[in-house]
Write a structure and sequence with these properties.
17% strand; 154 residues; alpha/beta; Rossmann fold; single chain; globular
Length: 154
Amino acid sequence: MNKILVINGPNLNLLGIREKNIYGSESLLDIAKAVEVTSEALGLETDFVQSNHEGEIIDKLQAARGEYDVVIINAAAYTHYSIAIRDAIKAVEIPSIEIHLSNIHSREEFRHTSVIAPVCVGQICGFGKMSYILALHAAADLQKRKQDSGNTVC
C-alpha cells in the first residue's frame, strides 16, 4: 500500500503566526505542500490532517487501522500528557513516528517527557519542516524493510 497518515495536533494550524522564533514562519499549508512533493518522490501516498481536539485525533488513529501503513504524528502539546492518544497509537498496531518542529528536549522541562514515544518506532524533533521530511524517509524505509522481509515492522 505505502499509505501514510500525517496527523497534526493542537495549535499547529497557527504555524507561521505563533511563536515564529520557535516554530518558524512557514504555515501548516507550506509544510503540507512539502510533504506532498516528498511523498510523491518517495512513492508514498499521504493524507495530511490537523485537529485541535484530542478525541478527533483518536478517531483518526482508530480509523487508520487497515487503511495506512505508517502514521507520522506531531501530537503537539498532547505529546506530554495524552494517555488516550498513546493508547490509541498502541491499539491500532500501525508503526508510528513521533515528530516535532522544535527540539522538545531543549525547551521547558514539562516538554521533555513524551508519553507517546514508548509506543512509537522513533522520534524526530528539532528540524522544523525537515522533521516531516525526515519522517517520510523513515516511513519509506520502514515500508521497504517490511516488503523485503515479508514481516510486519512495529
